[in-house]
Amino acid sequence: MRVESHPLSIVGEMETLEVTRSGGIVTVTMNRPHRKNAANGTMWQELLTTFREIADSTEDRVMVLTGAGGEFCSGADLTDGGARAAGKHALASMRTISEICLTLQRMPQPTIAKVRGVAVGAGCNMALVCDLVVASENARFSEIFARRGLSLDFGGSWVLPRRIGLHRAKELAFFGEIIGADEAERIGLVNRVLADGEIDSFVDGWAKKLAAGPPIALAQTKRMLNNAMNVTLEEALDDEGAAQSVNFGTKDTVEAMTAFAEKRDPKFIGR
Questions:
Q1: Which domains does the chain have, with CATH numbers?
Q2: Model pLDDT for residues 54-101, shown as the tens digit of each residue
Q3: For 73, 75, 137, 202, which has the most beta carbons within 10 A of its beta carbon?
Q4: Residues contacting residue 169 through CB under 8 Å, at least 6 positions apart
Q5: What is the side-by-side order of every strand in the sheet holding 179-180?
């Protein structure tokens, strides 16, 4: 696979994000370190545009989402003025945030949140909506909304119970306490916790493995798992059967069978 690194071509120059590609891995870095990468109106719009671009790309095999300056994201920037400053009703702004969440969750490619420092409020839920969460040992997580007089957003009411169960989700949401990386791992909020000096190489290794995988099969597996709590066993089995029928019609499955017989690694092309 060709390895290159360049800005996201169609999105172009952005004010609050850095987007690079290398070997099928697209890395989106939230870049407002002076505000611990809190999302202002510009960042929300750039995230939506960028996530849509990636979801539609056949070249991007996996997305890594992270933050600049040793922090992931401190949530929405409450000093930005929000919807009122933009002359919009708050519901209009929430529709944008909801669309970002849906686009991220529905993205066919596997997504990895690489979390250093704070991931609180919408920033916490943005990480949790990703398929995999890898945290540095200095990461801190909080559903801080109640402490700001707010209720959950960015999919928190959906993703938290699925990650850690209903009662523990209520505990995090009601009290809004900040928990460290070890506690987040213990309760199942994150997949892995690593020393800060090891997290980059670990995430890069996972991303390379996913980028080398079969895109169509991985996308179908992701979709079925995301929908698992909404269907019966019978419906899940029907969906699995339909998905396998699609997979058997791809060149990637033929390549996998051939590579197995020839005792070599397969080279998937996403067709």
A1: 17-211 (3.90.226.10), 215-261 (1.10.12)
A2: 999 999 999 999 999 999 999 999 887 554 555 667 778 889 999 999
A3: 73
A4: 160, 161, 163
A5: 118-120, 140-142, 179-180
